[in-house]
Amino acid sequence: MTEPAGTTSTRPPPSANGSAPPTPQPPGPGRLRTRISGVRTALIAGTAVLVVVLIFIIQNTHAVDISFLGTHLHLSLAVALLLAAVAGALVMAAAGTARITQLRRIMRRSRRQPRAE
Q: CB 78: neighbour CB atoms within 10 A?
């Protein structure tokens, strides 16, 4: 089936013998994304976040007294807030891990059951 002049086809061109898949095109105009470029971008973003955290700690150095479940701590405000943020992230990660495990079990069970067609 031929396409009318001036239109583009969404189907890939066939290979020489009709069996090979088409070669993948790089994303964007002339930009190739690799794992190394992704790692480099993540390291730059991580360094920027660490600089912001360092500024936060330096600006919040006065000490505070914290009492929690019978434990009394004397910490700087920045360290106390960072500990609270880390604890919240750990709770979130535990909930996310539990949900992913639940979904994987459901998928495994559905693959084992024969399909009724």
A: 19
Rounded to the nearest angstrom, the gap between the alpha carbon of residue 33 and the centroid of all alpha carbons in its chain is: 16
Residues 67, 117 within the same domain: yes
Judge if 78 and 116 occupy the same domain: yes
Name residue, tokens 């919040």: 60
Query: Could you tell me which residue, 117 or 69, shows the higher pLDDT?
Result: 69
Q: Which domain holds residue 54?
A: 32-61
Distance, in Å, from the CA atom of 38 to the CA atom of 58, rounded to the nearest integer, reads: 30
Residue with structure tokens 């396409």? 3
Phi and psi angles of residue 72, each rounded to the nearest 5 degrees, phi first:
-115, 120
User: Per-residue pLDDT tens for 6-53?
Assistant: 666 566 666 667 666 666 665 666 667 788 888 888 899 989 988 888
DSSP 18: S
Q: Mark whether 67 and 112 lie in a shared domain.
A: yes
48-57 pLDDT, tens digit each? 988 888 888 8
Number of compact structural domains in the chain: 2
